[in-house]
Structures are given as C-alpha cells and as structure tokens.
Amino acid sequence: MSVRIVFSALALSLLAVAGTGPAQAQDSKEKAAAVSDDDGKYADADGTPTYKIQDDGTVDWYTFSGYRRFNSDCHVCHGPDGVGSSYAPALADSLKTMDYGTFLSIVAEGRKNVGGGKENVMPAFGDNKNVYCYMDDLYVYLRARAVGDLPRGRPAKKADKPQAAKDHEASCMGG
Prior knowledge:
about 180 residues, about 15% strand, alpha+beta, signal, electron transfer activity, Cyt_c-like_dom_sf, Cyt_c-like_dom, metal ion binding, 8 helices
C-alpha cells in the first residue's frame, strides 16, 4: 500500500472524526493555543497539532523543523515564509481557514485548480519522505505563521530535538 493511500485514509478519517468539511472557521491565536505536550509535541484543545513559542521567542522543535522543511521543499512555489508567489498561494493565509485533515490530504495527494485560463498544480508529496515524514512539522510552522505568532524569517531560538522526534524520524526515514 502506498504512503499516499495511507495518508489519504488518515486525512479522511480525521475529517470524519472532527466532523468538519474541507475548511474550518478562522483559526486564531486562542484556538491554536497549546493545551497538551507529548515530549515536546503540542496539541490544541481539539487535539490538532500546534506550536509553542516561549516568552523569550524560543520555538518548539517541531515548529523549527517545519520552518526548515518548508524552506527545503515548499518555498520555491509557495514563497518565502509561506507568503505565496505567482506560482502558488500564500500558505500563511490558506491555513487561516484550512483544517489539519485537509492540509494532510492536499500535501499527500496534490491538487489541481483550473480556472480563468490558468492551471495551478500542487504535486503530490505522499511518496516523498523529506515531506511526508514531517507533515505535522510543516503544519505547525504554517499554523504559527497563519495566526501571526511567528514572524517571517528563521526562528532565532529553538527547543532541543526531543527523543520522540528522533525516534519518529529514524522510523519514517527507514533508519
């Protein structure tokens, strides 16, 4: 079974459990607030992955990792810091109303929009380990950008990489 199919099934099950459609109400700093911590991986009140930024500006490991992954694989089309480009939308805006399950589905399966004589294609990344092993990281980074808690540029301070992140990476990357 391909990774793309697994992620698609996961995304659909998340949509069903959450009882939401492809978009959610406007995300906000309050809704994105971290209420649980599982070895440095944070979740909001709904159990959706989120970020944690300390008062001194230190970001959690997953947000920092998301920044790195975004700048490795996504910025060419979606612009620096997710601000968009002539090729692809501003993900820092899209995630204001896009739920987690929809994000996973689009990244894994891709998307094609045709209209007004223009065709936009988001390629599927469900088979790219450099993306799918870090989809939560990408999501929390872009969520922090979307609600305005993370300014543009490389975060100045980051938390240490938790053991859970090391274990997941080794497992997902096949190491």
